[in-house]
DNA sequence: CTCAACTATGTCTAATCTGACATAGTTGAG
DNA sequence: CTCAACTATGTCAGATTAGACATAGTTGAG
């Protein structure tokens, strides 16, 4: 019944109570690296969670114009979150635009592709350093029952992911950088569409 | 103007013409590993692409009840696809449910978590073997201008990704398997919510 | 012969999510 | 003082997507 976004909110509130505004800033960085939501999604979801008695709130006069609503988990919310954590995840279909571009990369100019992958490589290297910095200011092996374990384990995943992505970008740049195909390039790009498609088995995907 | 789904369709049609039905089967396996769509999404999108003159179709009496519509790229569609390939990808926010569960993993029973991560590990190992099989029946280094290069490069990415994921699952299982915290477990799980939250700096996310 | 699986195209509702719109007080830089 | 940035909560229109509904002929197993 509760959506995954709902559980994301519960997971943050389990650390400590927050306002909707604080939740939306938390969902951009660093938690936003694996789950994002705008405030326009968070506010209605909080109302739903309150209706479902999984969170409650307390009105506090904040520094801003309006009263802050500080949300916290109810016992019911905590129980639901605990149950959800160990359930197998929904199979969300992967939709990776870079891989899709790669699937069609044979149609493009290698020099332009190299530029694209160099930019990607830089972005992933930047994110990796940011992760490494975070790891440096973190205890080595937090106890499983402490929130720090959640931070530590997600960070480990992020570092592993960025390393994978960096390796792949470097491999692509290497592949595209060989001279052999740069020479063939012009022929290939000017070749007509479907040169002999009815001679090709459709099973080749 | 054209959506990413539109480019996914163009990318498949660039290999060779297909019907909407064939597109939807292609979008489940193996292309579905990085881009999925149901036929209920594909048919309307094809109508849009026809209206935009990026694809055209030819009616063919198929084996089924209705005429097959065989779609193929127009020159305009091919040009649009080529341009899109080298453009920087949209920043799609990551939404990884397993990592979200990991973020909240400190709340759960380590034994149940191990079960969860073992299942994930097995799933990723299965997918990796399927990728390795595909690689075995594939030329070593296809020319950049041939569709086989697209297959080869996406497969390389998939193998790298599964290796990262497998490494992370194994690391998690190792972390959770230590006895030290199994002993602490009962204390932690029965600890009350927010034991001293107002003593904690809210900056700790 | 019957039934299930496959081929083939389409529509519709509901959920999720983005980006814009709307309002409004505080704080600090120049 | 003024203006931008920040804090703070909310709504709404539109795009994307999943899952169900709808129809209907062919093919092969038992």
From TrEMBL, chains A, B:
Pfam annotation, one family: Vir_act_alpha_C
Source organism of the structure: Streptosporangium subroseum
Example of a GO MF term: DNA binding
Lineage of origin: Bacteria, Bacillati, Actinomycetota, Actinomycetes, Streptosporangiales
Name assigned to this protein: DNA-binding transcriptional regulator, PadR family
Domain Transcription regulator PadR C-terminal: residue ranges: 95-176
Keywords: DNA-binding
Gene3D superfamilies: 6.10.140.190, Winged helix-like DNA-binding domain superfamily/Winged helix DNA-binding domain (1.10.10.10)
Residue span(s) of domain Transcription regulator PadR N-terminal: 9-82
InterPro entries, sorted: Tscrpt_reg_PadR_C (IPR018309), Tscrpt_reg_PadR_N (IPR005149), WH-like_DNA-bd_sf (IPR036388), WH_DNA-bd_sf (IPR036390)
Source organism superkingdom: Bacteria
